[in-house]
Write a structure and sequence with these properties.
Helix 1 runs parallel beside helix 9, helix 5 crosses helix 8 and helix 7 runs parallel beside helix 12. The protein is built from 15 helices and 16 strands. The protein is an alpha/beta fold. The strands form four sheets. The chain has a seven-stranded mixed β-sheet, with helices on both faces. The longest helix is centred in the first third of the chain and has 22 residues.
Length: 481
């Protein structure tokens, strides 16, 4: 197919993991591709900075990456050749309780199940088939709604995944198993009683068993650096300090892919879109926000549970009932006194994150979208609850409320780090209900952000599928993983 001459074949706006994935796939297929980034460096949510004290490196946004390590597309790229090294904690996730014990996720399904005692057989029955089938299921699940390549495996997964996590957790007898599952489900950032929240928990647990929950040596920014280095090595071009607020700022191209959410797309390219499509975008729903704290520590966090002192990620929130009640309160506009806290302690495994003998920690809790409430004290009390003496070890801290997060990264509308709520109404129909969720109503304009399937997380699959659609529609090139 012959196309008229343009400055570039394709332009990508935004250099988060999805923008980078889209740019790479297009460049791999022989196109001339320009990637534009508003900040002075690439990365989107993949950034690492000295937020607290000199020598303490903190992941500004994303921190732990089970989905990046298990991404069907990222696994095809030679990122290790461009400096990316993952570190795999022996205990990927710990979930401490008030009595000083902790439930843990280990790489082995069998070992994890055995530690859950009388829930051993239930856990194996739930997770072992998914872990076995995940490599073939992943392309179906991490993409747009389509006819599955493995319908039997998908149906088996769907029976459990479509349920609410509070319902599925009833299969377990022990508080340990129920709490471990609740902490996984809380990553969905919505009430645990919502339909399909079990899907988030199951996918995260399966990837933990297959790939672990790794942290990149040197910080999350090194995922972005590796992707960008590979992109430029195969001929791609990157321009930073180029914030796009109007479509007319863009160089001419046959295809433009936006790594932005519907709100920004309307501002930048609304005049290019049909009235009906704009109406659909305006109905797009954003979810809960987060309040984030980073700490510089004089020593490691003194969790009562020994397993939590050895885990890369710690889910702080107690029982299933407590976590579910807190998430529901937030969805209703409140702020719980004992919120679920997602905490990462990368410096336990990566000595580049802090000076010798010192440590860093990264954490957030959920809050109502746009909340301005300072949750620092509440979060620290939750950590102290399971790690007495924690606050005595804090020598520096940095916080982000929802407004500050959105100012730092405009895709985090109201502090929503998932690019829109991933509930049953927006699981596959994000950002709108269309045959292709990536293609807008305007010829050559696509959306490739986490506001498209499969949603949030550092996996690049939104960008991959959007670029794949653009290749087919605009350039008559068909590609598959």
């Amino acid at each position: 197919m012959s196309l008229e001459k343009r400055d570039f074949d394709a332009v990508i706006v935004g250099s988060g993991p999805n923008g980078l994935a889209a740019a790479i796939l297009l460049q791999q297929n022989g196109l001339s591709v320009l990637l534009l980034e508003g900040k002075d460096s690439i990365g989107g949510g993949l950034r690492t900075e000295a937020l607290t004290l000199p020598g303490f490196l903190h992941d500004v946004c994303s921190a732990v990456h089970p989905m990046a390590a298990g991404s069907p597309y990222f696994q095809t790229l030679p990122l290790h050749q461009y400096g990316l090294e993952y570190i795999y904690p022996e205990i990927p996730v710990a979930h401490p309780f008030d009595d000083g014990t902790a439930a843990i996720l280990k790489k082995s399904v069998e070992e994890t199940a055995t530690l859950l005692g009388e829930d051993r057989d239930t856990y194996i029955k739930l997770l072992a088939p998914l872990v076995k089938s995940w490599p073939s299921l992943a392309p179906d699940l991490l993409g747009p709604l389509s006819f599955p390549k493995h319908p039997v495996d998908l149906a088996r997964f769907g029976i459990d995944a479509i349920t609410s996590s509070t319902y599925l957790a009833k299969r377990f007898k022990t508080e340990a198993a129920k709490g471990l599952f609740a902490g996984m489900a809380a990553h969905s950032i919505q009430p645990l009683s919502n339909v399909a929240t079990s899907a988030i928990a199951l996918v995260l647990m399966a990837n933990g068993h297959l790939k672990g929950w790794p942290v990149p040596r040197g910080g999350s920014v090194n995922i972005a650096k590796a992707l960008a280095s590979y992109f430029t090595a195969i001929g791609g071009k990157i321009e930073t300090n180029t914030y796009i607020s109007s479509f007319e700022q863009l160089p001419s191209a046959h295809a433009v892919l936006f790594d932005v959410t519907p709100k920004q797309l309307l501002l930048i390219a609304g005049h290019k879109l049909s009235s009906f499509y704009k109406w659909q975008l305006k109905r797009y729903r954003y979810g809960m926000g987060v309040f984030k704290v980073d700490w510089a520590l004089d020593d490691a966090i003194p969790f009562k549970a020994a397993e939590a002192r050895e885990a890369g990620t710690v889910h702080i929130g107690g029982t299933l009932r407590e976590i579910a009640a807190g998430e529901q309160l937030i969805a209703d506009g409140g702020h719980p006194d004992k919120p679920f806290v997602l905490l990462a302690q990368q410096s336990l495994f990566d000595p580049t994150r802090a000076p010798t003998g010192k440590h860093t920690a990264w954490a957030y809790c959920h809050v109502p979208n746009g909340s301005m409430k300072d949750m620092t004290g509440i979060i620290e009390r939750q950590v102290e609850r399971f790690a007495p003496g924690f606050r005595e070890r804090v020598i520096g801290r940095h916080t982000f409320n929802t407004q500050q997060l959105e100012s730092y990264n405009p895709n985090y509308i109201g502090g929503d780090i998932n690019g829109g709520i991933i509930d049953i109404g927006q699981l596959f129909t994000r950002p709108v209900l269309r045959r292709s969720p990536y293609r807008t109503s305007a010829k050559g304009i696509y959306i490739c952000s986490s506001s498209t399937p499969p949603g949030g997380g550092v996996h690049g699959m939104c960008g991959y599928h959007s670029a794949r659609r653009a290749l087919k529609n605009v350039f008559n090139i068909r590609v598959n993983l």
